[in-house]
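Loading example: each entry is read as two labelled lines plus one structure line.
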Amino acid sequence: MPPEVLKGLVISLEKTKPVELDCNEIFARLDEYVDAVLRGDDLDRLMPDMKHHLEMCKDCFQEYEILVSAIEAAG
Amino acid sequence: MAELATKKRTNEEWLVALQGTESTVADALEDLRTILLRGLKHALNARADLNYDRMEALAEDAVQDALLTIRDKAHTFKGNSMFTTWAHKIAVHKALSELRRKRWQDSSLDDMLESGSKLSTFKSSAPGPEGQMVRSQTMSVVQNIIQNELTDRQKQAMVLLKLKGVPMQEVAERMGMQRNALYKLMHDARLKLKKRLAQEGLTPEDVLRQFE
């Protein structure tokens, strides 16, 4: 395994929690989360499990980023 | 050409319109189409990592598909966000699902796994130069744990996700599971690796130090 891949894996171990939200739970609340981001709410305090999953899951994070960008562009 | 102005609506107004007469539904969907398309096209085109030569058509199809879902599911909207945020979420999800599908549609599981990325990839590589004994010992503990403690499915998923960079959705489909179940499979794998490292007296921080 290339070192950078192994390193990425170990970093993800560092952040692994016993219980994590899954992708369906993230999608169900992604609109609520994004509105909170755009309002500037403190997500570490309000929705830490959502924030954590987005740090762990590349697919969900991509959806999140594109959703924010789409809302901002739509005005 | 100036874009036609869309009527500003509150959440309540969107829901009433979408569950109203044929004419209010049509008006609301048309306004929503304008809003969603404006956002989605811009968001997709702004991403260099999503290069696709028919992006405009893909965005239009995704929005069309999203509008049908929104019309049918409007009654399930819980009101925890702006209605338009919820609608954008559905359109973005459809567009990205389709983009990922198109990007990987010609790759079978075997194609993805070939070219030196089989499970043996996880075996220790050649020992490092002299003076790096600690480093290579720690690394071989880590690699042996990965090799010996994870299930074949966990290793297969790890190769595809971490080594090949295949999206979760596409890995899940080829492994005959939902994306959600794949997340859980990988979460179990991470928990197992973390626990076994701890049994070897190693924390993730110890291992990360080896990369410095």
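The interface with chain B takes residues 1-3, 5-14, 16, 18, 20, 22-24, 27, 29-32, 34-35, 57-59, 62-63, 66-67, 69-75 of chain A (CB under 8 Å).
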